Amino acid sequence: MAPVLAKVAPAHRTYDLKVATLLGLESLFLEETQQRTRRHATLEDGGPSTGTVSLRREEFLLRAYALHRRALPALRKTLKDQGGYLLHVDGTETAGSPVVFVAWDEWSGLVLDARVLDTENADEIAAFFRELEAALGRPRGLVSDMGTGILKAVRQVWSGLPLQLCQFHYVRDVGKDLFEKLEGEVRRKLLGTRVLARLNELTPGKEEDWQGSGRRCAEELERLLEDAEPRWMRILQDHVLGPRERASRFPFELTYGTIARQVWSVAPLVHELAMWNVGRSVLLGSLAKADGLLGKLAEDGEFTRLAYRVKTLTEAFGEYREALGVGRDVTGSDGEAVAVAAAEERRQVEEVLGRWEGVAEGIDDEEVRQGVRQRREAWEKRKGNLFVEVRDLRGRWREIERTNWRSEHGHREIRLSIRGRTRKGRTEEEMTRHGALMAVVGNWSREGYAKAMGWEREDIVRAMGTVSKEKLSEARRLKGRTRRCRSDVARAKHRDPMLREFLGILRKGSPTMREEIRAWMARREPLRQPLV
At residue 426, does pLDDT exceed 50? Predict the structure, then answer.
């Protein structure tokens, strides 16, 4: 794209709207950094500053979003012609930041609109839903996660609307209810014994690790075992301690529950190898210590009950998840999600639930029986929203995606784009400022967007130039703040002088104090001028 930029922004020029457009396209679709784009813009060192690049990129996003809003009547007609729209909604936030809330249509594949909300509460979401309906009409159905704010807002605005709950989020919530307490109990048990810390401290293979008269034998097998057994011990350490070093995928994988199962499984193997060494009159010290640590844990009655409970419930939960065709990742990137007809999924789930109810009755563990009952209760409560069927405006039954994977994938793409452009690992600030805008303007890369918006014969750059200051101000609603400002003075550099000024008024105590206080109250920080 560099030659194109050089053509529209030659040396000794002003940076017009075409430059803003191309800088915006680079940031959205090529993940160019500000420094690289600055060099591309003129192919010389005297190009725009990185600050100018940043402002022009933002200008592109604002103007492109304003154009999207202007063309909503054309989009409404397009959606009506295709039989209506099936709405997917999802919000993303990090560390208490505002929520980037995105709405997209499954049937056209287009992002319809987005907002930056203070929180994902019912009132803010309901207001957004009413705006969507006013602009695009009532959706034919809605797919969302298990967020209570979304569910309440749907009841407020679209009573009776077919509501499909994301099966991934449903299964995840069932797993959290099932394993949260159990994972905590196992964690406390393992950390309380300090077995994991002591196992981690072992250093297999050091010279002093080997002892015993049999070690003096010079046979080739003995020399080979001197290297093989320490390696076996290191593999054991990785196997038992490894789950703590991986990113958490709770509740689909239990960190300490997995460790407990693996300790329970390998303790007999460690003991067998230790006894085999005794028969050879040798001793691998690290192996003997591991045998003592894991053996003592495996003989602990409470630990054995917890490990068996984990094994039973994770097997039951895994079969339940597979019956619903849900993978461990909402985007399906793990390859485990399987699309199955709704009727077949229902049959599979009922079969799995019934079989495990029978198994649980034969197990002398009330916690296991309670966990199996929990799954049944969750299923009976939500099954009506897990296999929703939707008709379009022409009365035709339409297929429906039963997870929010596209929404989650969209959020991830934006974050990755921000990381690629800023070269920063943390994206909260940029995501809050531009995530909603980028979600909508990302439609530029989607097939059929120009036709849906009636732009096939329109000069888009020229059209962006016609966006008024008022519409740019409206577009700025999609720019969020990373930290909520409690006062009307948002910039730190203006707060200190204003605090001191007020105290100065009080200290002076002049006869015009009231007028001075009113003037202080009316004062605001200087606002950045809108882009024109």
Answer: yes
